[in-house]
Every structure is written in C-alpha cells, then in structure tokens.
Amino acid sequence: MPDPISWEYAWPYITAALVGGYLLGSVPFGLLLTRLAGLGDIRQIGSGNIGTTNVLRTGRKGLAAATLLLDGGKGAAAVLIAQLWGPDMALAAGFGAVVGHLFPVWLRFKGGKGVATFAGISLGYSWHVLVPFAVVWIGMAFIFRYSSLAALTASVVTTIALFYIGESELGLLYVVLTALVFWKHRQNISRLLSGSESKIGKKG
Prior knowledge:
The protein is mainly alpha-helical. The chain contains 10 helices and no strands.
C-alpha cells in the first residue's frame, strides 16, 4: 500500500481524487442499463430521474437492482481506491463521486439524486457508516413506502451518527452531502408536503 501523502504536498493528489471520484460517479448506469434493455430513455418516464427508484417504475426489478448495485459500487470504488493514499484522498473521492452522480457532465449536469452513491461511499469508508443509513432507509421505506422520505431521513441520521461516534471530519463531509441530497429532492419534499409523492413500486 502507498504511504499516506503529507498534507503540504497533498493538493495535486486531492484534486486528482476529486476528479477521479467525479468521473466514476458520473457514469449514468440507470440510463445505460435501460437503453441496453431496449426501454428507451429513462428520463422520459416517471420522475425523469436516472436512479434506482425511477428504473423500478419500468417494472424491471432486475434492472433496478443492477442500477442500485452499480450506482452504489461506483461510490464505494472511488473511496476504496483513494483510501490507499490516505483518508484525505478518500474524503475527496467520496465527495467527487456523489457530485459526479448528481451533476454528470455527460448529461448536461442533470443526474440522479445521489442516494445509492451516498450509500456506496458510506460502505467504502466503513460498514459502520453504512449500517445506520441502511437500517433507517429500509425501516422508513417499509413503513411509509416513500423512497424520497427514506433517503432524506437516512442521510440526516447517518450524519448525526458520525458526529456522535466522534467522526467529525467525515461528519462535516456528510453535512455537505446531505445538503446536496436535500437540494436534489426539493421537488420530492414539495410533493411529500402536499401528499402527492409517488410510492415505491408505482410504475411510470
């Protein structure tokens, strides 16, 4: 394993980690998989999103599961690769991966909502980080059947949990990521408040 890079020489490497994470995160797996399956442009159905929940609206559960795994996997891969050069690189790569998913240059910066990639970088950092996210998401989704509500609640709880266990540096990153997730879900929040949000499994 390479030695961690000292802070005074780290900026070029942090930039590389950011860019590398962004490029990994920007791969639009939901769009690619649905096109390969002959379903056309996923952005033309349902919410128009390229993520797992909208892929599920096609009725193809296998494609939705693959999208979930690949969108999560790209986040985990970005963190695990960068982690070889130290924790600062992993933080930069994780941030880059989520931003890449949210704002991919290939799709004119109109990407997904970041939930699976958020979960993926959590796994990349440690399974301890993923557990609160997964438990809360599954519990909220099971009870209320709203993917957006589950994601928003899980991101907040995970961030609070990081500060509670003393992971303040990672917690600060998650404050920023959670804010981005909320921003991308602003229309969902409006629909949740008005009672018009679609529930999990509803076809487009």
